[in-house]
């Protein structure tokens, strides 16, 4: 029975992955800051340990076969790159090198699709496309890419697989994180939406993709776990249909978003933490679309309809009130 160490086990992806690994017969050691933050089901093969990413995990890693590193700083409001680099890159490198020392068989790093070059509906982004200059200005994407580059440079020391998921939706979004987009449009009489679009994927599909990467992923490979490319208007239209609502929908003009971005940059210069920035508002205006062909061919992936992801997320939020 394989033993897997999972960081960030109380988050959206971490909780779903933990449950799916247990269902598949794996033993799971999950890292959490506080055990009470884990909202998944408990199991005899699950062990939760409290700690921080910079703790010494020698005693844990000497007895596991696989590390799945999910924990990261995803906030868009931090001003300094160092705040992202410390967690998303430096802590990853420390954990990776400890795994090498204790001869862990495989290290799975959960990154983001935004370290890869996005595309349009006519030419989708793939694992072969380099990061777009716009996302080089994103502290989050930049820190993840720096970690990716270090891991791939040292892949000869340990089997290394990088997972690049797109925008995940589903149950157990306890913060909430990406599920905020659903709360922005659910039970609203008026929905304002940006002019761009992105790729959406069920968090369960990302979880299943990670398990497939544990079992058959190629060392040194990157895998985009992506599904449906939708404009924001199409996304909210789908949400409206699934939740039987009919709000007024208004597209935010691109120029207004850009102006708001400049205002956000001004706030940041004044040392005010805000998710508003020119980079973030520009991202809302682009078609941030990706292909999942590689994961289908090499990991034998199949993907659920995005309607299922939206419905699962809404159902979860309803149970949590």
UniProtKB/TrEMBL annotation:
The organism's place on the tree of life at top rank: Bacteria
Give one Pfam family: Epimerase
Q: Which residues form the NAD-dependent epimerase/dehydratase domain?
A: 4-225
A single cellular component GO annotation: cytoplasm
Gene3D superfamilies attached here? NAD(P)-binding Rossmann-like Domain (3.40.50.720)
According to the record, the signal peptide region is none
GO MF term set:
aldehyde dehydrogenase (NAD+) activity
- InterPro entries (alphabetical): Epimerase_deHydtase, NAD(P)-bd_dom_sf, NAD(P)-dependent_oxidoreduct
Residues folding into a coiled coil are: none
PANTHER family (UniProt xref)? NAD(P)-BINDING DOMAIN-CONTAINING PROTEIN-RELATED, PROTEIN YEEZ
Name listed for the protein in its UniProt record: Nucleoside-diphosphate-sugar epimerase
């Amino acid at each position: 029975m394989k033993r897997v160490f999972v960081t960030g086990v109380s988050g959206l992806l971490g909780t779903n992955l933990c449950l799916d690994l247990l269902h598949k017969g794996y033993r799971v050691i999950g890292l959490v800051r506080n055990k009470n933050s884990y909202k998944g089901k408990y199991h005899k093969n699950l062990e939760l340990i409290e700690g921080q990413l910079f703790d010494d995990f020698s005693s844990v890693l000497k007895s596991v076969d696989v590390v799945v590193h999910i924990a990261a700083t995803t906030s868009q409001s931090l001003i300094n790159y160092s705040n992202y680099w410390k967690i998303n890159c430096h802590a990853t490198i420390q954990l990776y090198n400890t795994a090498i020392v204790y001869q862990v068989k495989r290290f799975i790093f959960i990154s983001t699709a935004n370290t890869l070059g996005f595309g349009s509906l006519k030419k989708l982004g793939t694992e072969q496309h380099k990061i777009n200059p716009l996302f080089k200005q994103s502290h989050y994407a930049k820190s993840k890419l720096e970690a990716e580059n270090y891991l791939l440079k040292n892949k000869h020391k340990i089997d290394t697989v990088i997972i690049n998921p797109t925008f995940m939706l589903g149950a157990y979004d306890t913060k909430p994180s990406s599920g905020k987009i659903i709360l922005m449009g659910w039970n609203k009489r008026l929905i304002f939406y940006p002019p761009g679009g992105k790729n959406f994927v069920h968090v369960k599909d990302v979880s299943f993709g990670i398990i497939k990467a544990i079992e058959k992923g190629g060392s040194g490979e990157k895998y985009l776990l992506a599904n449906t490319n939708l404009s924001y208007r199409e996304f909210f239209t789908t949400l409206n249909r699934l939740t039987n609502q009919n709000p007024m929908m208004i597209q935010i003009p691109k120029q207004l978003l850009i102006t708001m971005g400049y205002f956000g940059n001004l706030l940041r210069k004044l040392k005010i933490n805000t998710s508003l920035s020119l980079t973030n508002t520009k991202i809302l205006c682009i078609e941030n679309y990706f292909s999942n062909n590689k994961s289908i061919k090499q990991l034998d992936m199949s993907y659920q309809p995005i309607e299922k992801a939206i419905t699962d997320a809404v159902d979860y939020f309803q149970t949590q009130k």
